[in-house]
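ESCALATION

Customer reports they have been waiting on this structure for their group meeting. Please prioritize. Original submission:
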Amino acid sequence: MMKNIKLWAGILGVVFAVYLLLISCYEAAWNVLTMSGHFNGIAGIVIAVLLLAGSIVRIGMRGAEDDSGSIISLVLFSVAAAIAFATTGIYHYMQNWAIICLVMGIVSVLMIMWKNSSMKQ
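Update from on-call: job pushed to the front of the queue and completed.
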C-alpha cells in the first residue's frame, strides 16, 4: 500500500514539475527577450527541478528498507517550498506552487511516520 502511494505521489509530482518547467522556461525566455528584469522564470525553473528531483527520488526509493528516500525528497520539497514562498511577495502565482511543494513534503513526512509506526508493531 505504501509503495503505491509513493508511486502515485511521485508520478503526480513529475507531472506538476514538467508543467511548471514548461511555463517557467517560457517566462524566462520572455523575460530575457523583453529585458524586463524579472526573475520569475528562473525561480520557477529552480522550483520545478527541485520538485522533479524529489519526485524521482520518491519513485526510485519507494521500495527501500529505510526512510532515506522519504527524507531526501522531504528536503528537496522543503527547499522548493521555501523558494516559492520567498518569491510569493513579488509573484503571487508562486503561492500555488509553494503549496504543492509543501503538500508533497507533508506526504513525505506521513510516509516516514507510517513506516516508523508499522516497524514498532
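Sent to customer with the following note: Residues 2-120 form one domain.
Escalation resolved.
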